[in-house]
Design goal:
The protein has about 140 residues and is an alpha+beta fold. It has 3 helices and 5 strands; from the N terminus they run βααββββα. It has a 5-stranded antiparallel sheet. The two termini are about 15 Å apart.
């Protein structure tokens, strides 16, 4: 484990659309998983210069979700503008743990912790996080 992991203040704005809600205009619990995925993808691209497609073509690997824990604290509603954050918490050989939040203004609506595993594209077996990415995360 590295103790000097570079922290980012990344946040992705997400508007709640009708498709994200139930009949009452409240965000459906599964929609948050999509919001979190979008934020992780853009965090990796904007903060570290890697798209998912780039990871696949350059390193022959991809990150897959091993586990996720979501705490639903308050509901988001139709047409809300949310901010979805992503921040590196821990880095192992092939595992990456991220902390994420969904906020509406100052209100924390959802807190999440996601474990990702770096796997090969050909057989989906765990491999080490690419050194180029590991170095960025350590500095």
């Amino acid at each position: 484990m590295f103790h000097s992991i570079r922290q980012s203040n990344f946040s992705l704005p997400v508007r709640v659309f009708f498709q994200d809600t139930d009949a009452g205009g409240v965000v459906y619990h599964g929609s948050y998983v999509n919001f979190l995925e979008r934020a992780r993808t853009e965090w990796l691209r904007e903060c570290y210069g890697y798209s998912n497609k780039g990871l696949m073509s350059e390193f022959g690997m991809v990150f897959v979700v091993r586990s996720l824990r979501l705490d639903y604290l308050k509901p988001a509603l139709l047409d809300d503008l949310l901010a979805v954050s992503a921040q590196l918490k821990d880095l192992g050989r092939s595992r990456v743990t991220l902390c994420q939040q969904v906020l509406r203004g100052e209100d924390v609506l959802v807190e999440a912790e996601i474990d990702l595993v770096c796997v090969t594209m050909d057989n989906f077996k765990p491999v080490s996080v690419p050194e180029a990415l590991r170095e960025q995360w350590k500095n």
